[in-house]
Amino acid sequence: MIGELPTSLNVNGVERAIRSDYRVALLIFHAFNNPELSDWEKAIIMLDCLYENAKEILSDDIEEAINKAVWFLDGGVTDRETKYRSAKKVLDWEQDEQMIFSAVNKVAGKEVRALEYLHWWTFLGYFNEIGEGLLTTVINIRQKKNKGKKLEKYEQEFYRENKHLIDIKEKLSAEEQAEKERLLKLLNGEV
Question: InterPro entries, per this entry (predicted)?
Answer without folding.
Answer: Phage_A500_Gp15 (IPR009660)
